[in-house]
Every structure is written in structure tokens, then in C-alpha cells.
Amino acid sequence: MRILSYTFIFLGILLLIPLTGFAWDYPLSLDITKVSFNYTGNGVAITLRKNNGENIISAPEWYANPGGEILRNDHFAFIKGDVPAGVKASFASSNPDPTESVEIAVDTCSATSGDGFENYTGWSLNNGTITFPSGPLETEGTFNTHNGTSVKSSVGKCRTKFLWKIVKVNGTAYSQDIGYTIHDYYTLLSSPSSFAYYTYNETGIPWTDALDLACGWASGQTTREGCIPLLTDSLYNYSKIKYIDQNKGYFAPYDTNILYFKVLLDSLDNQNETKLDCYALSSFLNVLSYSIGFPFYNNATIKLTPSSSIITNSIRPAHWTYDETFTWGAHQIISFIDSYYSEYVADPSAKVYQNGSLILAKGDITYNTYLPLLTSSSVTKGSRAQTYIYHP
After folding, report:
1. What is the pLDDT of residues 156-196, one digit of tens each?
2. β-strands 62-64, 357-359: how paired?
């Protein structure tokens, strides 16, 4: 009997060992490994491409090894003022207790601005609860947006820093920091549904390379009327480009509404100065506009065609330090509303003289007012056309 009693005691101890082995050790061994923004059910995050259009960004945008080595930290985007449904985050532990829940809080902290991304603390997350029902594996929790908070309410480039920390273990108060994650993202004016990648028959997926420029140049704006002047003026003054007379379409094929955008971006990355003609410049402006949500039917190129040639007045081309006159076979600009003869226009290729002063057409001047400032030649205005991206 004594031997049998000892046997039962020994078996009981063996049954208890797995539970004891999985019990939390304090401090908890817990690392954040993934943070997802553009996931199924989020509802408002916008899919993006990166690396000059080569790759689509997918969730999780932030990914790290247990222990803290960051393997990926991609950008994402929302429409200005959006209230994201929430954020999904994954956690890993080498020694969890599968029977006890962990409540995690997320503090929005001040971040150091950099690379054109500004600190933004107006978006906060609610607490979330995680469990490890299968033992020492990765698990996931959802952290909803806190009531009354949202992403930035204007166009911009934002940086938000989250501190993830344990506040309860199995319902009992406990305090332990897990770690920080920092996220850079864009806020757009509207849905970028006109951003069309002709090569892949793809629309509505803007490139981070375009958003880096457009959201930076139009930062703080809430309307088309506020964005267009800044986009046009910034493109005209962009230090990496210079106007060239009738380049005949290395970046925008002559007499088309196609932009070789990846080729253009590669050139901007690899050269101190990239020369663009009016086709490339106007198409570039359109693509920047589309990327933050301008619809093509309000934002299109028009081609000006003369009976013989366009002889310009004295003008100041983009990134030139002196005035010049040109003889063009045609010229392309941007038109902003559907009225055929009275729409407002933008022309990032050159400044013109009005009452003795140089001005840039940036969506604030009508076609009928602008044309005689540019030339006295008789021209025929072509139909309005959407700009498409193509990778030859």
C-alpha cells in the first residue's frame, strides 16, 4: 500500500510539471514582433508601392525578431482625418502561461521628426488583451483607435511613436514596458483612385516615392486649391530637375499622356540633375496630384498645338536663372476643371511675365488669361487626358 501511495503522489507531480513549466516568470518574457495597419478589416488604410514602384507593401508593415532587431518598417497611408479601425500587433514569448491573459496598453509618445516626417501624437490606441493558448508561440491582439483621436486632418507625412506596456496579468495589475515602435505614414487629401499604373493595369495604388514628394510639398493643406499651388511651385523649383526644350519624351513619350515614372525616379535617384520637357513636367505634376487624391476628370493634361509653331514670349524655365524665348512644335500644361475654354491651368515648365513680374501658373489663373502671357501664337487646344504610368 505504501508503494502504491508513493506511485500516485509521483504521478500527480508529473501532471503538475507542464503547468508549472508554462507559468509566467517575472518580469515577463514578452516581445512585440509585428504591427499591422493595412490588414483585412482595417477599412481605411491605403495600399502602397515602394522602391520606385517595384514592390507592393503588405501587412505587417513593422516586423522585428524577438529581442528587438527590426527587419522591416514600411510606410502606410490614410485619408486625412481618418479614424483607423485599429492596429493588429503580434507578440512572442519563450515561456508563457497558457492559462493567463495579458492586458497591454499603448501610449502615444513624442517622436523625433526626421526625413520629412513630423511628430504626430493625435492618434491613440485602446488597450488590448492577448493569451498564449498553445504555449510558447506567437500570438496576436487587436488595439482599436481610441475614441476622439484620428490621423492628421490635413495632407502630410507623419511619425507616430507607440510605447507598448503590460498593465495586467490575468486581471491583476502589473506594470512592465515591452518596447517602442515608430511608424512613418502619409495622410492624403482623398482616395488616390486615379493613380494608374498602366503596365500592370492597376489603379489606386500610389507609390511612396510620389507621396514622399507630394505629401511633403502639400503638407498642412486640406483642399485642392491649397495643394495645387504648392505642388506646382515645388516642382518648378525642385533642385533635381531642369527644364529642357523639346526633349522628345525620354520620360514622357512625345505626344502622349504616358509617363515613364520609374525611369524618371531612377534618374532622380542617380543623377544630380534630370532634364525634363513640358510633357514630363506636366505629367509629373499630374501623378503627384493623383497620388494624394485628385480625380483625373478634374486634373488632366491638355496639349497646345499651333498651325506652324509656338513662339513664346520671354519666359523663365524651371530651374533656370535667366529668361529665354523658345520655338515649340507643341506645349503641354495642366487643366483643372471641365469647362473647355474657361478652366484654370497650371504650367510647371516656366514662369511668364504679367504686368512686369514673373508669375507661375499654378491652378490660380484661367486658360484665357494665361495663354497670351505665354505666347502670341495661335494655338489649338487638345482634349483633356488622364496621365498614366508606364514602365517600358
Report:
1. 999 999 999 999 999 999 999 999 999 999 999 999 999 99
2. unpaired
DSSP 49: E
Q: Is 66 exposed, middle or buried (0-12, 13-18, 19+ CB in 10 A)?
A: middle
Residue type present at position 297: Y
Of 146, 183, 152, the C-alpha closest to 61 is 183
Q: Which residues contact 5 (CB under 8 A, 6 or more apart)?
A: none
- Residue 176 and residue 165 in contact, taking contact as beta carbons nearer than 8 Å: yes
What is 325-383 written as a DSSP string? --EES-EEEEE-SS-TTT-EEE-TTEEEEETTEEE--EEEEEHHHHHHHHBSS-EEE--
For strands 70-73 and 62-64, give the pairing.
antiparallel
Angle at 362 between CA 114 and CA 233, to 5 degrees: 35
Q: Model's pTM, two decimal places?
A: 0.91
- Say what angle helices 261-270 and 278-291 make with each other, to 10 degrees: 100
Among 223, 265, 209, residue whose Cα is nearest residue 77 = 209
d(CA 213, CA 261): 13
d(CA 279, CA 344): 18
Which residue type sits at 34?
K
Q: What backbone phi and psi angles, to 5 degrees, belong to 54?
A: -70, -35
